[in-house]
Here is the input.
Amino acid sequence: MTKKILITGGAGFIGSALVRHIIETTDHYVMNVDNLTYAGNLDSLTSVENNPKYYFEKIDICDQNNINKIFNKYNPDIIFHLAAESHVDRSISAPNKFIQTNIIGTYNLLEEARSFWSNLKNNKKDSFRFIHISTDEVYGDLGNTNELFTEESPYAPSSPYSASKASSDHLARAWHRTFNLPVLITNCSNNYGPYQFPEKLIPLVILNAINGKKIPVYGDGHQIRDWLYVGDHVKALLKIALEAKSGQSYNIGGRNELKNIDVINTICSILNELKPPNHLPINKYEELITHVDDRIGHDLRYAIDFTKLENDLGWKPNENFGTGIKKTIQWYLNNLEWCKIVVKNNQ
Ligand code: NAD
Here is the structure.
């Protein structure tokens, strides 16, 4: 059955991948609600902007009146809530926006969704879903252990970013438990892929390298993250929205645990082949790697166990890091104009 899907943060990295995936591969309608912060770019949505099933509204999720109007105007069947401040370094230098958007904004959406949902009837009410998209960073630091995060792992966030996301997860869970709102929570590991804003590790390394700039590595670069290709993430999100029971939470990951320094070396070595640095006074891109002071409070290791999602819904990622990173690097090399535009728009 065709659904009306409201996506917050649909002009961001993961949100735009979700919008494109739904519009390009299904019959569902998409209402994208995004206030276009530095991380939101309509240039990531040019392939769908003229599609009659796609709508865009420039609205701040902290603005309760306008969120109320959006619910009444579009009558959504499913909400994917991705709008957030998402960069850890920015949360350390300026936490206020993280508290506003990630906590107050989520509260507004939950309240407006609750009021809208409570007036729905029968099947519409039963099948309504609010998917709250969160991160594995809410679980804190695994340190030097071999453990994995499961859905039962205790919350122990380290940064203002992860603490604000943890707060929003607690609100989402409480709105299910107290008000029965059909909420699902997803906690995903580090995403990578096309259209990621160039301040995040992978696009930053690619662009610094080909421009002959230093490639900064925090501390010794031994921090471990589990990497998931964004296309696999958005497939998991749609599957969860359409097939999972309300009230559940799901971890999503790629089973691709890598040290940051190994990610950086892999990118350099692929770039040496795809775009040899003949235009620069170096022999290989690895020469640009420079160690800088570690981020304060930097977690050493995150790792996800997504067995529950595999067993309940049969999801697993299609890409491994080797295949996904090649596609990603090639995309950035082919889309330098997009990179220039989004960086220029934010200067
Ligand atoms: P992003 O920073 O690329 O995009 C965030 C989007 O939200 C932008 O389009 C921005 O304009 C919009 N936005 C911000 N504040 C808003 C507000 N007040 N009102 C309306 N729109 C607003 O983020 P992303 O990497 O695409 O992440 C999306 C979600 O997924 C976030 O909730 C994040 O916590 C979560 N997540 C991200 C990752 C990752 O690796 N990127 C991993 C796990 C979970």
